[in-house]
Amino acid sequence: MTELTLQKDAALAAIADAASLEALDEQRVAALGKKGWVSLALKTLGQMSPEQRQEAAPAIQAVRAEIASAIEAKKAALEAAELESQLASETLDLTLPAPVRPQGSVHPVSQVMDELAEIFADLGFAVATGPEIEDDWHNFTALNMDESHPARAMHDTFYFPDAVPDGGQPASSSEALGQKKMLLRTHTSPVQIRSMKEQGAPIRLIAPGRVYRSDSDATHTPMFHQVEGLVVDRDIHLGHLKWTLETFFKAFFEREDITLRLRPSYFPFTEPSVEVDVGYSNEGNRRVVGGHGDAEGHDWMELGGSGMVNRRVLEMAGVDPDEYQGFAFGLGIDRIAMLKYGMNDLRAFFDGDPRWLSHYGFGAVDQPTLSAGVGAPS
Ligand code: PHE
């Protein structure tokens, strides 16, 4: 028994002295491991007489418990100390500047959307958004294209299969589903309706975003980007529309000699409707915006549609057309991005090729501002 006490005292001292978790574990193995002295002491019980055993067993068990709890306590202390020193050595200085070369770049479409927001914010326009999965009513009906309207056919719409209504029974006909038929929006114009219904008049906003049409060649992709513009207020007329577009294009292309031509056209949701053309010339194989389209070496290029908001559209969106008038326009973002930054294949916009992006992309920290020029610094 005295031998056991000596062994115990020595072990407790060694445990107290252990400077690391590894050193502590060596002590655990030496005492409590299969061939440890505590285990060996327990084995001697087998050769003892019952009387001897009755005396020795509790003593050995007590030693075992004492050693185990000493190891446990020391382990907790060592772990706490290790965490402390780790925390002390791994400090992070949040005041240090960011890494010099940020990875990745901003896609030209995102860049142009930021430029649009910047220019139009300066003119007092808010930025609105709407869902890309839209219902038939917002995309067509409320824009004065009821179910039989021929203009619907021009949109190459992606429709969703008929939805199953909440009751669980599929509707027997698409008519029963009525206006709730779902589709991928074919233009950003439904945001006009949603914004007027939500905010009423007066209103001044742009709505940039993705739109979808079943169409694909060198100049058309099934998904592309538009920006909608909408102004509703008292005494709004076509002159406001022309000034707004002219002011925007001058700021966007960063040149004063922008000439617009408004060409009579037709959209169900505007009356009168005009197509917006801009004068340009060819420099090498690149189109450069500027100058009068009828001038020597110049021509006109269509950039989008626009017009005065049709009274029926105002009515359907809950705005009184006798009190308020409005103008609206829709421009292709990809198109004006290509013109400004000189790309000639639309499809490359959506290939996700990192070489294209590193060539045409913009630095993540170069935010477009009016004072520094909306385009990225070269
Ligand atoms: N939504 C039309 C289109 O996608 C563009 C447009 C918008 C025309 C607003 C007039 C007014 O072709």
Automatic annotation (TrEMBL):
GO terms for molecular function: ATP binding; magnesium ion binding; phenylalanine-tRNA ligase activity; tRNA binding. Its cofactor is Mg(2+). Keywords: Aminoacyl-tRNA synthetase, ATP-binding, Coiled coil, Cytoplasm, Ligase, Magnesium, Metal-binding, Nucleotide-binding, Protein biosynthesis. InterPro entries: aa-tRNA-synth_II, Phe-tRNA-synth_IIc_asu, Phe-tRNA_ligase_II_N, Phe_tRNA_ligase_alpha1_bac, Phenylalanyl-tRNA_Synthase. Mg(2+) binds at residue 271. GO terms for biological process: phenylalanyl-tRNA aminoacylation. Binds 2 magnesium ions per tetramer. It is found in: Cytoplasm. This is Phenylalanine--tRNA ligase alpha subunit. It comes from Erythrobacter crassostreae. The lineage of its organism: Bacteria, Pseudomonadati, Pseudomonadota, Alphaproteobacteria, Sphingomonadales. The gene is pheS.
